[in-house]
Amino acid sequence: MAESMIQIVERPGSDLFRRLQAAMRGGDLRTFKVEKRGRKVLHSASPGWMNWTHAEGVIHGVILSPQRKGMEWKLLSAFVGRLADRYATDILYMTIHFPTLAGPGTAKPAGKTRK
User: Fold this and answer.
1) For 6-23, how does the pLDDT look when each residue is reduced to its tens digit (9 = 90+)?
2) 8: which strand partners?
């Protein structure tokens, strides 16, 4: 299954992961909600979910959409957009890993063109 991954490095002392969980539970982020003891994130208008963990200031999320394959970008887009809008000052940087289906591609050498 193809899946996108996101890593978010928090600014020291921001406690971003706990604040995001609290905002989703409390209704401040109305379109997002958390389930499974805060380990699963869902979006009201996007298919799929994100399983996320937190360790030593790094949030790691895996975005899955098994019923609608290839639609992971919708949840990813909504999540990154919300982070940029409300929590940009709490983030040092984000890294997004896109799925590769067959590994790194090799380009075919360009052939001679006929005149």
Assistant:
1) 999 999 999 999 999 999
2) 59, 94
Distance CA 39, CA 41 (A): 7
Instruction: Report the distance separating Cα 43 and Cα 31, nearest Å.
Output: 6
- For residue 56, the 8-state DSSP code is T
Strand 40-43 to 91-97 pairing: unpaired
What is the number of residues in the chain?
115
The tokens 């895996």 sit on which residue? Answer: 62
Q: Determine the 3-state secondary structure of 59 from DSSP.
A: strand
The full set of domain ranges for the chain reads 4-97
Task: State the CATH class of domain 4-97.
Answer: alpha beta
Residue 65: DSSP 8-state: -
Per-residue pLDDT tens digits for 47-97: 888 999 999 999 999 998 878 877 788 889 999 999 999 999 999 999 999
Contacts 24+ apart (CB under 8 A), 64-67: 64/1, 64/3, 66/1
